[in-house]
Amino acid sequence: MPVFYPPVKPCPCGSGRSYASCCQPLHLGVKWSETPEQLMRSRYSAYFLQDTAYVLETCHPEKRPADLDLNDGIRYTGLTIHEAVRDEVEFSVTLKTPDGHTHRFRERSRFERLGGRWVYVDGNVSIR
Ligand SMILES: [Zn+2]
Q1: CATH number of the structural domain 19-127
Q2: HAMAP family under this entry (predicted)?
């Protein structure tokens, strides 16, 4: 089960909008993401809220991990979108591991539209 997050609070993805008017409708399945960037943001928020089902269902069926544990003590502390062009989004994520260390990685993700719905295909990660 995802963590409860008050809909009126700023969306975890950092858009500056409330959760209710940003990623929540996507998480609830009320709306589909219109762009790869929107999907990327909602997937980040899903990691933040430990919404495993959403992360899995927005993966390309052929690339979907068999299982995924988001209850791993990692806290997601920031998302920066660097570039969103056609079906690719480049972003950085900062996170804190249970031992208190802060990490930052940068990824260029690829997305594909399947049956009218954007899904995450894969990405190139650089850890720094
Ligand atoms: Zn959002």
Answers
A1: 3.10.450.50
A2: UPF0225 (MF_00612)
